[in-house]
Write a structure and sequence with these properties.
Layout lengths: L11 E2 L3 H8 L4 H27 L17 E5 L9 E5 L8 H21 L11 E5 L8 E3 L4 E3 L14 H14 L8 H23 L9 E2 L14 E2 L8 E2 L3 E2 L15 H4 L5 H14 L7 H10 L9 H16 L3 H12 L6
Parallel strand pairs: 2-4, 4-6
Antiparallel strand pairs: 1-5, 2-3, 5-6, 7-8, 9-10
Helix pairs in contact: 1-2, 3-4, 3-5, 4-5, 5-7, 7-10, 8-9, 9-10
């Protein structure tokens, strides 16, 4: 494990705060009420995350004698409270129950574990067999899902704007990848390093979906959160890696604000310096690399990104140019001066990020 400078007090949610802020101001209480409660939940959990970082979270290890090449999953039910982890409803190896949300969470944890193990030889989130815990049915109409540094938590959504947050497997993979980043590069959650943190979660979240479906880069939809938006919403997902800024254009949510290139980089003090917005730029770079190389995106493009994330050279406060430069180096070291290197260099050039 290569953790730079100790764990940061990062609390990461799949739905950006600017989206919930907009919903919270809506005149329809069916929309504003759940959004306001969700923001309150997030504020509380963010404070709790800081406290556990200061005080120290309880150490979690795999069961004695358990193999680290097998997942150790536990799913809990919060029963619409905010109490974590809640009541245990499914453990590793037990049969599916009647609750589809529980079953999806269990399967998503497994899909994430499998991608990291089979593609990169990584043994769970911390590379040491960390048990994967998840809580479902969190809060009343909670419009989010998050990794709190110790476990996954899923809301049921309000059924007006958002559906059940266990539906898209890439949402599960996205949030668990924040745990991988926490245990490796530990990128600061602000500005460009925070956008890289978010982008890495989108990248590997998408790869987890593609791996579980057996898709090639050409077959993948490159959407984050497809199936999460309720039918009334004009949109397909939370984000698009293929075409950032096009995931939704809705009278309630507004228009997807993500840029695809540095020409449209958003400078803002909100959302920790736009971490969920400017992540569209490195997201698009990865999409360009993956589609240029064709085949399965987790094999070459994903390997290059994983090498940088876990290689120990990525600074906590890395800028896009720092990350891009390391991907060029990783491509050259692993594949030589071939198509892989060319694809990486061209992708970053196309999105306007210089490599050194």
């Amino acid at each position: 494990m290569t953790t730079n400078g100790g764990f940061q007090p990062v609390f990461c949610t799949i739905v950006p705060p600017h989206v919930l802020d907009k919903l919270a101001r809506h005149e329809d209480p069916a929309l504003s009420g759940p959004a306001r409660r969700s923001l309150e939940h997030d504020s509380y959990q963010r404070t709790h995350r800081r406290l556990t970082t200061v005080i120290g979270a309880p150490a979690v290890a795999p069961p004695a004698g358990a193999a680290t090449d097998q997942p150790h999953r536990t799913v809990y039910d919060a029963r619409h409270t905010q109490d974590l982890p809640g009541h245990k409803v499914r453990g590793e190896g037990t049969d599916p129950g009647k609750d589809a949300t529980v079953n999806r969470a269990y399967a998503g944890l497994g899909a994430t574990f499998e991608l990291y193990l089979k593609a990169y030889g990584r043994h769970s989130i911390d590379d040491a067999g960390l048990p994967l815990d998840a809580t479902v049915h969190f809060g009343e109409g909670y419009d989010n899902a998050f990794w709190n540094g110790e476990q996954m938590v899923f809301g049921d959504g309000d059924n007006e704007i958002f559906l059940d947050f266990t539906i898209p497997v890439d949402v599960i993979g996205h949030e668990l990848t924040h745990g991988v980043t926490q245990h490796t590069a530990n990128l600061e959650y602000y500005g460009q390093s925070g956008a890289l943190n978010e982008s890495l979660s989108d990248v590997f979240g998408s790869l987890i979906k593609q791996y579980s479906l057996g898709q090639t880069a050409a077959e993948a939809d490159w959407l984050i959160g497809a199936g999460l938006l309720a039918p009334r919403v004009t949109g397909t997902a939370l984000r698009s890696m293929k075409a950032p800024g096009t995931a939704y254009d809705d009278d309630v949510l507004g228009k997807d604000p993500q840029p695809a290139t540095m020409d449209d980089y958003v400078r803002t003090g909100r959302d920790n310096g736009g971490v969920h917005i400017n992540s569209g730029i490195p997201n698009h770079a990865f999409y360009l690399v993956a589609t240029a190389l064709a085949g399965h995106a987790w094999e070459k493009a994903g390997q290059i990104w994983y090498d940088v994330l876990t290689g120990g050279e990525l600074r906590q406060d890395a800028l896009f140019a720092d990350f891009a430069t390391l991907t060029v180096k990783a491509a050259r070291e692993r594949y030589g001066a071939g198509d892989e290197l060319t694809a990486v260099q061209k992708a970053w050039e196309q999105v306007g990020v210089r490599t050194l």
